């Protein structure tokens, strides 16, 4: 008979009775039981003597006897009462000493006493942390949307301080910086035939480069030394039926009128003082005029029922009228007019409308002014940049796309039609074999089905048969016919 099976049968609990649970090991009770036994006291004294002898001979670490008693006490309690140090709970004397040393050499930190002892140092650190708020590193001074790592997912960034109308136009046109502002230069769409097809709908052009002033007197009654002088495109308004008497040095557009009593002229004025200074007592800005403020009294409150915008009807020229509106109300009025069917146009499309209607567009068609030179420089900037970065060995001969227009002395601007062929800008114009001018611009005109353009010809030399020769093919001349004359 197997004795182990018999022993297991004898130790098996009776049916219906719960199995007795082994009591959990309690370290404090084990230590108290060990201290009360004579064997434990004798073992501690012997271990303390042995540790003291090792410290004196140099083979051990010099430690306090009480500390050794504590570590022997902790480990012997675990060893005697079944703490799972090893699976068989048997250790040699050497292993017992090593386990005691490894177990008891851990430093003990009392948090409350540690904090009290270093309270002054902690207070100084807190003061330093609160005073160093300035960003000293370069990557800390960058805005969040420009940092590379932690905030690289933020693509919103800082919103530029631009008006809503400028953002609206920049999404649809390529903007050009000229006349101290940004104007729509070219539409992203490649075709402009829809401009001719949409003549019945109406067009909008953003004229932020213009200035407007209101006068309480007739401009003809002012001294000649008090005319307007500015480098930008000017718009002068007078408050009676007499238009400006002196003609400006630049080109004039057709005068317009509001209710038959407000006249307007456009151009470049070269005599007089700068508009930016207090050059005339009776002059005030158009915003003050629209708000209904009294002239000369800046602190006066606006009148009741002041206009939010003013429409100025034109009696001739390219446009039928202009709308003057405050900057804060511009975007709302612009969106309302676009929803009604008006088409916003760029400078290129405005020039296309001028060709179809045979009307000069100021200042983009007046090559003898400084305003046209600024427009031409900005217009050719992308083409010139590409031409200049081309290697010298691969750089082609200069074409009309990279040439600046040279106006004739005393020349006149004339419209011409090309019966057959194509004429490019900067082409030479000949009269009976003699060069008399050059072509400002030319393009296909949808209203007549052939090429139409504008040329500048020296005065009194356009009576004979005219022809044009492109820069790319100087040996071939194309006959042209004058269609309209414009001073």
TrEMBL record:
InterPro entries found in the cross-reference section: Pop1, Pop1_N, POPLD_dom
UniProt subcellular location: Nucleus
Region of interest (Disordered), ranges: 1-25
Keyword annotations from UniProtKB, A to Z: Nucleus, tRNA processing
Residue ranges constituting the POPLD domain according to the UniProt record: 323-396
UniProt-listed GO biological process terms: tRNA 5'-leader removal
One Pfam family in the UniProt entry: POP1_N
Record's protein name: Uncharacterized protein
């Amino acid at each position: 008979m197997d004795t182990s099976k018999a022993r297991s049968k004898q130790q098996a609990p009776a049916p219906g009775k719960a199995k007795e649970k082994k009591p959990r090991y309690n370290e404090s009770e084990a230590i108290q039981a060990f201290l009360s036994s004579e064997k434990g006291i004798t073992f501690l004294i012997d271990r303390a003597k042995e540790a003291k002898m090792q410290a004196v001979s140099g083979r051990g670490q010099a430690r306090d006897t009480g500390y050794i008693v504590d570590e022997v006490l902790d480990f012997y309690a675990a060893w005697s009462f079944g703490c799972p140090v090893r699976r068989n709970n048997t250790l040699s004397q050497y292993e017992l000493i090593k386990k005691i040393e490894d177990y008891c050499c851990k430093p003990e930190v009392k948090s409350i006493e540690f904090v009290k002892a270093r309270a002054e140092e902690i207070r100084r650190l807190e003061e330093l942390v609160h005073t160093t708020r300035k960003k000293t590193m370069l990557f800390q001074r960058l805005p969040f949307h420009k940092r590379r790592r932690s905030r690289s997912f933020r693509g919103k960034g800082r919103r530029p301080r631009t008006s809503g109308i400028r953002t609206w136009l920049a999404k649809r046109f390529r903007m050009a910086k000229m006349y101290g502002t940004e104007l729509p230069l070219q539409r992203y769409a490649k075709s402009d035939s829809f401009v001719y097809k949409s003549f019945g709908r109406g067009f909008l052009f953003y004229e932020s480069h213009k200035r407007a002033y209101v006068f309480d007197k007739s401009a003809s009654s002012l001294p000649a030394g008090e005319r307007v002088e500015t480098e930008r495109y000017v718009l002068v308004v007078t408050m009676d039926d007499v238009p400006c008497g002196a003609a400006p040095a630049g080109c004039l557009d057709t005068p317009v009128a509001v209710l038959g009593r407000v006249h307007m002229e456009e151009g470049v004025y070269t005599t007089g003082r700068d508009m930016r200074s207090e050059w005339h007592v009776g002059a005030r800005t158009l915003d003050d005029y629209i708000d209904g403020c009294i002239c000369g009294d800046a602190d006066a409150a606006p009148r009741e029922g002041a206009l939010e915008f003013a429409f100025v009807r034109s009696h001739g020229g390219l446009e039928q009228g202009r709308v003057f509106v405050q900057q804060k109300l511009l975007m709302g009025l612009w969106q309302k007019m676009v929803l009604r069917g008006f088409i916003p146009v760029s400078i290129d499309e405005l020039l296309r409308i001028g060709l179809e209607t045979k009307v000069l567009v100021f200042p983009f068609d007046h090559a003898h002014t400084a305003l046209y030179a600024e427009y031409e420089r900005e217009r050719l900037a992308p083409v010139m940049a590409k031409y200049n970065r081309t290697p010298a060995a691969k750089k082609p001969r200069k074409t009309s796309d990279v040439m600046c227009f040279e106006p004739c002395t005393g020349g006149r601007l004339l419209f011409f039609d090309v019966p057959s062929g194509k004429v490019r800008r900067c082409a030479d114009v000949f009269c009976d074999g003699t060069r008399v001018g050059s072509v400002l611009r030319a393009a296909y005109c949808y209203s007549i089905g052939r090429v139409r353009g504008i040329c500048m010809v020296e005065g009194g030399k356009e009576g004979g048969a005219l022809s044009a020769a492109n820069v790319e093919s100087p040996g071939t001349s194309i006959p042209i016919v004058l269609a309209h004359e414009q001073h």
